[in-house]
Amino acid sequence: MKKDVDKVIIPKPAIVRLSTLYVLLENLEQEGKTKIFSAEIGKLLGVPSHTIRKDISFLRQAGTGNGYEISILKNIIAEYLGFNKYKKACIVGMGRLGNVITTKNGFYSNQYAVIAGFDNNPEKLKSTRTDMDLYPMAKLKEVIERENIKIGIITVPQDSARKVAHDLIDCGIKGIINFSPVLIEINRDDVFIRNIFIAGEFNILSAFISQYEKNKL
Amino acid sequence: MKKDVDKVIIPKPAIVRLSTLYVLLENLEQEGKTKIFSAEIGKLLGVPSHTIRKDISFLRQAGTGNGYEISILKNIIAEYLGFNKYKKACIVGMGRLGNVITTKNGFYSNQYAVIAGFDNNPEKLKSTRTDMDLYPMAKLKEVIERENIKIGIITVPQDSARKVAHDLIDCGIKGIINFSPVLIEINRDDVFIRNIFIAGEFNILSAFISQYEKNKL
DNA sequence: CAACTCCAGTGAATAATTTCACGATATCAC
DNA sequence: GTGATATCGTGAAATTATTCACTGGAGTTG
Question: Which of A178, B11, B35, B207 has an alpha carbon within 20 to 30 A of A2's alpha carbon?
Answer without folding.
Answer: B207
